[in-house]
Amino acid sequence: MALEMMMSGPDYMRDPRKHQFSPYANNGGTSVAIAGDDFVMIASDTRLSRGFNIFSREQDKVFPLTPKTMMASSGCWADVLTLNKVLQARLTMYSHEHHDMMSTTAVAQLLSTMLYWRRFFPYYVSNILAGIDEEGKGVVYHYDPVGHMEKLTFSATGESVSQIQPLLDNQIGGLNMLGVKPPTMTKDLARQLIHDAFVSAAERDINTGDGIIIHTITKDGKTEETVKLRRD
Amino acid sequence: MNTGKSHTMYPSTSGTSVVGLVYDGGVMLAADSLGSYGSLARFRDVKRLFKVTDKAALACSGDIADYQFIREVIEQKVRDDVCGGYTRELNAGALHCWLTRVLYNRRSRFDPLWLECVVAGYKDDEPFLGYVDKIGTAFEAKEVATGFGLHFAVPMIREAREKKQNLSCDEARKLLTECLKVLYYRDCRAHFKYQLADITPEGVTIHDDLNLKKETNWEVANYISGYE
C-alpha cells in the first residue's frame, strides 16, 4: 500500500522480525443493490473475515440511515463502523434542525462529501447507497473510498465486485448481447438475481459467504429476508 | 515519516491468546498469565483479565503495558461513574463501544494501543461477548478469540456447538480448558498458568491462579527425533 511504502520504505528493507503497524485491514464482504421503478433492493453477505480467519458468520453490512435510505459498506471494518457512526450523527443533527428526515439525494451527497473530507487518510470502505428518491423511484448510488459518486440503477461493490458486476451488466443492463432488450425490473427478478450473484460469488471468493440479508425499501417501508450461503 | 516524535509501532512485553464463549446462562473468558519478551518467557504471572463492573470483564492480548494503561483508565472511569451516582453501571455493550472509539482514535493518530481485547458480560440482561483490536475492528459473536486462539480455539468451539447448540456451564468450562490446553501444546508463547472469568446475571467471578500442568501430557515428546 502506498501509505505504508511512504512511511517505512519498501517491504524488503523492513526488519522481518518486527511487527509493522498498518492502520487498515481488509475484512471482506460484498454488497449488491438493484433499483426498480417503485422499490430498491440492497443486500450484503454476512461474513466478517480477516485473511483466512472468519470473525463472524452473521454480520449484516447494510445499515439503515433514514426510513427511505440504506447504506451497504465493506472493506476495512474499523472504518465502516466509524463512517457509519459519524454519518448517523450527522443525520440526527439534520433531523433535529429541520424537523424532517434527510432526502435520499441529500444523504447521497453528504456521504460523498464526508468521504472526500478524508481524502488524504481515506476511509478504506466501498459503499453503495440505496433509497427511494423524492419522486418515489428507486435509486442506487455507488462510491469509491475517496468520495467519487455515481447514480445508477444497479451496482455491486466489495470483495466480489469483479464477479458480480459483469453478471448484472449482462442480466440487467443487457450488455454484450445482440438484439436483447433490458428487462423491466421486478422485485422477483431482483431477488433472484441477487441470490444467484451471491451464490456464484461465494463459490469462488473465500471472503464472501455464510449468508445474505436482502433488504427491500418501498414507499410503504422496509422488509428484510435472510438466505443461507455456503459456510466453507 | 519524521515527525520529530516517534510512537510505539510494535509491542514489547506481550501476552498471547484470549478465549471467550457464551454459554447457556452466562459468558466465560480465559487467558494465560505469561508476559513474553520476544521469544523469552519473561513474566510468568501477569494478570491480563479483570473485572470491570458486576456486568463486565475485560481480557487483552498484545502489549502488556498498553493493557495496564487502558485498565487504569477504565478503573478510573468506573470510579467516576460510582462517585457521580450513576445508577446504571457500565455494562459490557457500553464498554465495548467505548473501547472501539478509543482504539480507533489512537490508530488514526498513528499512536496505537497494541491490543486485541475481548469484552465479556451483560448488556440489557442479554449475554454479551465482543472483540476489538488495535485499529478498531469490532464485532460481537458467540465465540471470540485473539491471536493463536483464532486459529485453534474458535474452530474447536464452533465444532462443539455444531454437535450441541447450547452449552451448559460445566461443558463451557471444560471446552475452554480444552482450548487452553491445545494452545499450551502448540503456541510457543502460551503458558500453563491461567485466569478464568465466569460472568452470569449474578455477577463476575474471576478464578485466579488456575493451572493446566496436571492436565497436560508430554510423554510423546520423547518420541520426536531428527531435530537434534
Automatic annotation (TrEMBL), chain A:
**UniProt name for this protein:** Proteasome subunit beta
One record GO biological process: proteolysis involved in protein catabolic process
A Pfam family: Proteasome
Q: Which residues form the signal peptide?
A: none
Q: How does it assemble?
A: Component of the proteasome complex. The 26S proteasome consists of a 20S proteasome core and two 19S regulatory subunits. The 20S proteasome core is composed of 28 subunits that are arranged in four stacked rings, resulting in a barrel-shaped structure. The two end rings are each formed by seven alpha subunits, and the two central rings are each formed by seven beta subunits. The catalytic chamber with the active sites is on the inside of the barrel.
UniProt similarity note: Belongs to the peptidase T1B family.
Q: Where in the cell is it found?
A: Cytoplasm; Nucleus
Q: Which GO cellular component terms, listed alphabetically, does the Swiss-Prot or TrEMBL entry include?
A: cytoplasm; nucleus; proteasome core complex
PROSITE patterns documented for this protein:
PROTEASOME_BETA_1, PROTEASOME_BETA_2
Cytoplasm recorded as keyword:
yes
**Cross-referenced CDD domains:** proteasome_beta_type_1
Which purpose does this protein serve, as stated in its record?
A: Non-catalytic component of the proteasome, a multicatalytic proteinase complex which is characterized by its ability to cleave peptides with Arg, Phe, Tyr, Leu, and Glu adjacent to the leaving group at neutral or slightly basic pH. The proteasome has an ATP-dependent proteolytic activity.
From TrEMBL, chain B:
The UniProt keyword set, sorted, is: Cytoplasm, Nucleus, Proteasome
Major localisation = cytoplasm
**Which PROSITE patterns does the annotation name?**
PROTEASOME_BETA_1, PROTEASOME_BETA_2
Residue ranges that the Swiss-Prot or TrEMBL entry lists as coiled coil: none
Task: Spell out the Gene3D superfamilies in the cross-references.
Answer: Glutamine Phosphoribosylpyrophosphate, subunit 1, domain 1
Q: Where in the cell is it found?
A: Cytoplasm; Nucleus
Family annotation (InterPro entries): Ntn_hydrolases_N, Proteasome_beta4, Proteasome_bsu_CS, Proteasome_sua/b, Proteasome_suB-type
Record keyword Cytoplasm present: yes
Q: Which SUPFAM superfamilies match?
A: N-terminal nucleophile aminohydrolases (Ntn hydrolases) (SSF56235)
UniProt entry tagged with the keyword Transmembrane: no
What Pfam families does the record tag this protein with? Proteasome
Q: Which GO terms describe its cellular component?
A: cytoplasm; nucleus; proteasome core complex, beta-subunit complex
- Which domain of life, per UniProt? Eukaryota
Gene Ontology biological process terms, A to Z? proteolysis involved in protein catabolic process
Q: How does this chain assemble?
A: The 26S proteasome consists of a 20S proteasome core and two 19S regulatory subunits. The 20S proteasome core is composed of 28 subunits that are arranged in four stacked rings, resulting in a barrel-shaped structure. The two end rings are each formed by seven alpha subunits, and the two central rings are each formed by seven beta subunits. The catalytic chamber with the active sites is on the inside of the barrel.
The entry assigns this protein to a family as follows: Belongs to the peptidase T1B family.
- Say what the protein does: Non-catalytic component of the proteasome, a multicatalytic proteinase complex which is characterized by its ability to cleave peptides with Arg, Phe, Tyr, Leu, and Glu adjacent to the leaving group at neutral or slightly basic pH. The proteasome has an ATP-dependent proteolytic activity.
Q: What is this protein called?
A: Proteasome subunit beta
- The protein's organism comes out as Cherax quadricarinatus (Australian red claw crayfish)
